[in-house]
Amino acid sequence: MTLKVPSFDTIKDEFDAYVGSIGYATMVTVDAHNRPRTRVLIPVWEVVDGAPLGWLATYRTPVKAAHIAGNPHTNFSYWSPGNNSVAIDAVAEWTDDPTDKQHVWDLYRRTSPRGAGYDLGGFWRSPSDPQLHVLRLTPWRIQVIRGADLRSRIWQPELSTRRDPVAAGSSVPR
Fold first, then answer.
1. Terminal C-alpha separation, the chain
2. For the whole model, what pTM was predicted?
3. How many CB atoms are closer than 10 A to CB 137?
4. Is residue 52 a contact partner of residue 46, using CB atoms and an 8 Å limit?
5. CA dihedral defined by 125, 130, 132, 136, rounded to 10 degrees?
6. Cα separation of 155 and 166, whole Å?
7. DSSP per-residue string spanning 51-118
8. Is 46 exposed, middle or buried (0-12, 13-18, 19+ CB in 10 A)?
9. Taking residues 80-96, what's their average pLDDT?
10. Does the pLDDT value for residue 159 go beyond 80?
11. Separation CA 35–CA 18 (nearest Å)
12. Are 47 and 8 in contact (CB under 8 A)?
């Protein structure tokens, strides 16, 4: 049975435990012909004003950039052999803001949630490295499933507060 929860705080501990222990997520984007493409990456997450917010330090490859430009809706899937899983539907937006890059650098270094992340210095020289690109991930649906009994809980922001930058024709709120 799937239960919708009223606030992200209701599933935060389980979300943090699963994401932190699994670490790697499969990211899905789609191309101009609606064909999916997956890649395995490590996003980091935080809570801002009671809602989850994700960040992905990555290379801005031509395929990834084209997919996100054509359709910024993405999915991140975490799964462990015990069948604990987290599915995150989000809108991705590139940010080149130096403050965001420093913030993301710090989140990865301290791991957020605990266990997720790594030292970005293994891939980039600093937050100002021109090869470091950052995606801001604004979730519009998160499902957490406990493998032991397949209990499923879903969080979504309330419709009155949800902002879909694609539908609104604007950028993701900061």
1. 34
2. 0.90
3. 24
4. yes
5. 140
6. 20
7. EEEEEEEE---HHHHHHHHH--EEEEEEE-TT--EEEEEEEEEEE--HHHHHHHHHHHHH-SSTTS--
8. middle
9. 97
10. no
11. 28
12. yes
Tokens of 170: 């604007």
Beta strands 36-41 and 25-30 are: antiparallel
pLDDT-derived band at 1 (thresholds 50, 70, 90) equals confident
**How would you class 156 by CB atoms within 10 Å of its CB: exposed for 0-12, middle for 13-18, buried for 19 or more?**
middle
Mean pLDDT of 147-168: 75
Taken as a whole, the chain contains a residue count of 174
Structure tokens at 5: 């929860």
35: which 2 tokens? 């064909």
Q: Tell me which H or E stretch contains 165.
A: helix 165-168
Q: Are 10 and 156 in contact (CB under 8 A)?
A: no
Please answer whether residues 136 and 172 qualify as being in contact, where contact means their C-beta atoms are separated by less than 8 angstroms: yes
Q: Which residues contact 46 (CB under 8 A, 6 or more apart)?
A: 52, 53, 54, 55, 107, 112
| Cα atoms in the 13 Å half-sphere on the side-chain side of 116 | 25
Q: H or E element: which one contains 136?
A: strand 133-146
* Distance, CA of 14 to CA of 78 (rounded, Å): 12
| pLDDT score for 164 | 53
